[in-house]
Amino acid sequence: MAKATTPENDTEPSGNVEHGSQPGNVEMLRREHPTFAPGSADDETGIETKEGAFLERRERRRARREARQADAGAKNAPMAGPGVEALLREEATDEATPKGRETAPAKGGEGRNRRKRAKTSKLNVSPRKAGDPAFPVMPPASAARRKSRHIGLMVSFVLVVFVPLAVAGWYLYTRAADQYASSMGFSVRKEDSTSASEMIGGIIDFGGGGTSDADILYEYIQSQALVEKIDQRIDLRAIYSKPENDWYFSLAPDAPIEDVVRYWRRMVTIYYDGGSGLIETRVLAFTPEDAQVVSQAIMDESSATINQLTSIARNDATKYARNDLKQAEERLKETRANLTQFRARTQIVDPAIDVQGQMGLLTTLQQQLAAALIELDLLRDNTRDGDPRIRQAEQRIDVIRKRIAEERSKFGVGDTGEGNQAYVSLVGEYETLSVDREFAEKTYLAAQANYDAALAEAQRQTRYLAAYTMPTLAESSQYPQRAVLLAVLGLFALGAWSVGALIYYSIRDRR
User: Region Disordered: what ranges (predicted)?
Assistant: First the structure.
């Protein structure tokens, strides 16, 4: 009986395994398959087939054991190659296959073919000889070959990154015209002289309206209204269309106002500090003189705008006081006109003075009457009755009394009062007109004082443009910043190319 193969004798040298029907193998088959019992010729054929499968499976297991032992002996070595992985997969397949179904007896030529396939298995596993490496030696990898997708990637890099950089560099260094900068700085100040009472009370406005005016000015410098005014003044199209070869950085001579405004915002940069209210501008042009001229035009128009805003604020502040003054003036004119009409109609300049004169006359008549009565009494006491002097004295007394009655009738006093009410009405009308005139005069004086105070307050809060840096004249060109523009363009192109390549490979790997 042949000796069973064990791990100790697995290392015996041998070539490709050729096995026949041997008694030892039959015993091993019986141990593996207890239900196996040899019989007829067909049974002999089945024995040979099962024997070949058994030997093949045994050689596989031995190769796997050797691989495991070698792996345990070299812990620091890399993982086994594809050959060992294939053996492990076959081991898993063999273990998953039931022993009773490993090989079925075949008849005739089919059995012989299976036996032949078992003898000429692709594994051809031989025992490891002395001096053989612990791991299966894989054939060397073939040389790397450039694939079409690699060529496409390089072509895309050239088209997306290199070509735009080359074109941009050629244009910037050969066609782009030099640009000169003119800077200026200013702020909006408010002339606010505070009274002593406000200083004691702490009611002080530290430039309350200046910041708002600076915000307005910041937006105004970028507006189309300012561009149109400056264009009418210095012809912006002629200034910015001088470079004939630089089509990108220059302005077309026949550009519409919308294009001029967009170009203006690109050539004029504004720096505004909202906390301090300082505004600084940088104007670019193709000559130093043009840059300074444009910068000076911006300052002049800004100053005119601030003055206009100040005038509007002054008018708003004095508007109500001015309206009150105008109404008081119209009322005073009306009352004076009414008084003039009264004097022309009544022929009385001042009824009060006329009344005083009439009262003086009446007083005089009263005195004369008293003297005449005294004289009459004396004549009656010292002369005879019928003396002509008594008659004259009586006549004189009658005349004086008649005159007194007439004078009293003018004031509406007397026994009859015929038509005497007219003079009293005139005096009352005059007094009404006089009171209206006095009230109108006082109202006018108050309105005038209020208007003067409002005007003085508005003048104390006058705003003006204070320049701390006048427009400068450049001596050298600092723009366009060619290196910076190329660097930014390169980073952008490289980023776009990288994103595109990643998207392409991500889509390709999902297919």
Answer: 1-140
Predicted confidence (pLDDT) at residue 228 exceeds the cutoff of 60: yes
> Of the candidates 426, 441, 460, which is a domain's last residue?
460
Among the ranges given (18-32, 152-166, 182-196), the one the predictor scored with the smallest mean pLDDT: 18-32
Residues 6 or more apart in contact with residue 275 via CB below 8 angstroms: none
d(CA 393, CA 358): 25
Together in a domain, 40 and 111:
yes
For CA atoms 41, 43, 49, 55, the dihedral sign is negative
3 has a pLDDT exceeding 50:
no
226 vs 208 pLDDT, higher one: 226
Residue 377 is part of which domain span?
A: 329-460
- Do 191 and 284 sit in the same domain of this protein? yes
In a domain, 155, yes or no: no
Task: Collect contacts of 366-369 with beta carbons under 8 A, ≥24 apart.
Answer: 366/404, 368/400, 369/397, 369/400, 369/401, 369/404
Alpha-carbon span 144 to 19, nearest angstrom: 43
Rg (C-alpha) for the chain, rounded Å, is: 64
Q: How far is CA 400 from CA 292, 374, 416, in A?
A: 101, 13, 18
Q: Torsion angle of alpha carbons 300, 303, 309, 311, nearest 10°? A: -100
Could you give the CA distance from residue 424 to residue 410 in angstroms, rounded to a whole number?
A: 8
280 contacts 269 by C-beta, under 8 angstroms: no
Task: Work out the number of other CB atoms within 10 angstroms of the CB of residue 293.
Answer: 19
Residues 271 and 359 in one domain: no
Q: What average pLDDT does the segment 452-480 reach?
A: 85
- DSSP letter for each residue of 330-383: HHHHHHHHHHHHHHHHH--S-HHHHHHHHHHHHHHHHHHHHHHHHHHHHHHHHS
Distance separating alpha carbons of residues 464 and 458, to the nearest angstrom = 13
Per-residue DSSP letter, 137: P
Q: Examine the pLDDT at 384 and tell me if it is beyond 70.
A: yes
The answer to whether residue 2 is domain-embedded is no
Cβ atoms of 404 and 303 within 8 Å: the answer is no
pLDDT in tens, 413-439: 444 444 455 667 777 888 888 889 899
Residue 209 structure tokens: 């309206």
* Domain end call among 82, 98, 119: 119
Residue 414 lies in a domain: yes
Q: Find, among 322, 319, 329, 320, the residue nearest to 445 by Cα.
A: 329
In this structure, the answer to whether residues 305 and 281 fall within a common structural domain is yes
3-class DSSP state of 191 = strand
